[in-house]
From TrEMBL, chains A, B, C, D, E, F, G, H, I, J, K, L, M, N:
Principal subcellular localisation of the protein: membrane
Entry GO CC: plasma membrane; proton-transporting ATP synthase complex; proton-transporting two-sector ATPase complex, proton-transporting domain
Alphabetized Pfam families for the sequence: ATP-synt_C
Official protein name in the record: ATP synthase subunit c
UniProt organism field: Pseudorhodobacter turbinis
Annotated HAMAP family: ATP_synth_c_bact
Reversibly protonated during proton transport, annotated site positions: 63
Topological relation to the membrane, as annotated: Multi-pass membrane protein
Family designation: Belongs to the ATPase C chain family.
């Protein structure tokens, strides 16, 4: 059972690392974009609707990289292909 | 029982690492956004309501990456799929 | 008893690491937000109430990531699910 | 089965590392580009359509490096050539 | 007695690490807030009382993350739940 | 089979590392170039076509370093010369 | 005697690490606060008394985090609870 | 065959490291040069041809360091002198 | 004698580390405070006495963290409580 | 043959490291020089020939450090004195 | 004699580390103070004597942290208390 | 022959490290000097000859540190005193 | 002879590390002081003698920390107290 | 002969490390000083002789720290006191 346990451990660790490290860049980038959107609105209130739209498109684009990380972490935790493959293999070797 | 203990240990460590490292980026990003919102309000008090709304949407977006991390840490601590799988397996091997 | 001791050790270390590392980002982010709130009040004293409200909402939002870390550390120290599971298991194996 | 397990482990770890580390640069770069697009729109609202087009082309270009990373991570998880090669080999050695 | 000694060692190390690393962020954040409060008072002496109040609330908020760390270090040194649990266990095993 | 497995592992890890680390520089560089292109267009709308052309040439040039990394990662995964050489060798030693 | 020696070693190392690392943040933070107090006094000499009072309160607040570290180091060196517990235990085991 | 495998492994790892690390500097440097070319064109549209020529010469010069890295990586993968030497040696020792 | 030697070694290393690392922050902080004091005197020569007084109080406050480190290093070298305790213990075990 | 293989491995790794790490500084330095040349031409178009000459001399000087690295990497790969010496020695020991 | 040699080695290493690492902060801090003193004199030549006095007091204060490090290094090399204690002990064990 | 091989390996690694790490500082320093020379010429074209002379003297001075590194690397590769000494020694031991 | 060799090795390594690491801070600090002296002379040529005197005193003060490092390195290489003590000891043990 | 080889290896590595790491600070410091000398000459061409003299004195002072490193590296390679001492010792033990 050691192989299964090792894959479980590395999946747990990688899932946590992926989602936490992957939060660093997007959070900083979104903070920067939002900060400059707020300055821009204060400077040109008439263009607020235009600025908001540009901001939300940009935030969505930046957020996408964080979502890639979250997706990979979820795959590792709940749909791990290697875990399933080994589970099947060990089931067969027992069943056989 | 060693496998269970190892998974428990790596889950504990990863949960703490995830939530603490994942707090770095969002906190800095939110600080930046809030800082520039405050400057913007001071510069253009008439647009305060518009600025507040944009700030809160941005904060929510940035906070989401911290919440991903918190969710993963909670899953690791209280709904760990690998832990449950191994518990079942060891229960079967005892029951069998 | 080694398994219990190892989980105790890793929980202690992770609790400390989580709460100390998790204090870095929020403290810097709050410092930045507070610094720019003070500048904003000095620049536009008439909007002080509006600025204070925005500041406190932002501080609460940023503080929340530090509180996630504190909560996880407290869970690890006082309501550690893996510790409890292993304690029960060892109690059963003794009782059995 | 140790070889398969080792490849599974390294693939899991690399997939997570690739997608999380690869999110750092694009997120920061997109944040910078978006920030300066917002400033530019505030400064020259008449050129908004021109600026938006330039921004979206740039964001797509920057996002491409994040997508390279996501693609590599997906290949490692779901279409890993080395995993398949070893699976076939072990199937043959069993079948043989 | 090795288990007890190991837990003692890791608690000592973690307590020191927690309180020293946890001092980094708050000290820098408070320094920034105080610096900008002093500039703000010099710029707008009439708002000094308002600025002082905002400063002290902010300092208290930032200090709170340092206090979390100090509390955890104190818990680890003087009310360590794992230490107590193991002491009781070893007392029972001797008493039994 | 250990040699093959080791080469597979190091190829997997290197492919991920190459493409993720190689995304850092180009993404930041492109972000900078795009940011300053947007500022330039806002400042001199009449030169927009000239600026766009210069921007796209520069982006292509910067992107080329990311593409080198992607190419190397693909070679490592799907056309690895050392893997092929060892496969042939082991085929011969079996065939012989 | 090895356990006692190990605890002594880890206490010595942690005490030094705590007090030296814990000096980094407060010293930088106090330097920043003092620097901006001096600029503020030069800019508005009439508010010197007000500025001095704010500076000293801030310095005391920042210094507190350094004092936490010093206190923990002193506890580790001169009132180490784990050291005392193990000394008593070994005295009992000898006495018994 | 272990020697060959080790050289293969170190060549694979070095090729990836070289091309990815070597992309960092040129990408940042080219981004900076391009950014300032765009600003320069916006500031002095009449000198655009002169500026473009200077930019392309500079980009080529900077790109050359990235190309050195790519060349070395290709040599390591497809024309590795040490690999060839050892292949010949082992062929002789077999042939002999 | 190994225990004594190990404690001696760790004390030597920690003393050096403490005093050298503990010099980093205060030196930078004092440099910053002094730099801004000199600028302030140049800007407002009439407030020189007031500025000098504030500078010296600040320098003393910052220096205190360096002195904490020096004190701990001296304690470790010349009044190390663990060293004395072990010396007594070994004297007793020889005397007994 | 282990000695030869080890030297081959360390030469491969060092060649890649040298050329990739050695590309970092020159690329950044050249980017800075080129950036400021472009600004200078935009600011003073009449001195363009003089500025270009100074730029190209500077680029050549900076490029020289990258060329040192490339030369050393080529020597390590294709004219490695230690490899040749050991090859001769082993040839003699075989011939003897 | 191994214990003595180990203490000698750790003392040598610590002495070098202490004095070299301890030179980093003061040198940077003094450079900053001196730089701003020179600017201040250029800006207000009439206050040169006052500025020089403040500069020298500040330099002495900053230098003190470098001197702490030098003193500790000298103590470790020429008046190492642990070395002397072990020399005496070994002399006694030989004499006895 | 292991000693010779080890010295060869460490010489190869050190030569590459020396020349690549030693290229970092000079390249950045020369880039800064050249950048500011170009700005200076653009600002004061009449002093171009004087500025060029100062620039070339400075570049030569900075380049000297890179040349020290290149010289040491060449000595290590082609005139390594320790390699020669050991070669002679082994020749004597064979000859003797 | 192993003890002597180990002390020789650690002394060699520490001497090099001390003098090279100890050159970092002073070189940067002196560069900053000199840079600002040159600006100051350009801004106020009449105070050149006063500025030069202040610069040279500052450079001497900063250089002193580099000289501490050089002195310690020389002591380690040519007047190493531990080396001498062990040489004497080994001479006595041979003589005795 | 292992001791001699080890000392040779550590001397080679330290020599390279010393001269390459020791080039970092001086190159950056000289680059900064030269950059600001060039700006100063452009700003005040009449003080060029005075500025050049100050620059060359400063460059010499900064270069001195790089020369310390080069001297130590040369001593380690060509006049290594420990190497000589061990050579003599081994000669005596053979001669004796």
């Amino acid at each position: 059972m050691t192989d299964l346990a090792l894959i479980a451990m590395i999946s747990i660790f990688t899932a946590g690392l992926t989602v936490s490290f992957g939060a660093l860049g997007p959070a900083l980038g979104e903070g920067r974009a939002a900060a400059s959107a707020l300055n821009a609105i204060a400077q040109q209130p008439d263009a607020a609707s235009n600025l908001s739209r540009t901001l939300f498109v940009s935030l969505a684009m930046i957020e996408s990289t964080a979502i890639y990380c979250f997706v990979v972490a979820m795959i590792l935790l709940f749909a791990n292909p290697f875990w399933n493959a080994l589970i099947e293999t060990s089931a067969q070797s027992v069943g056989g």
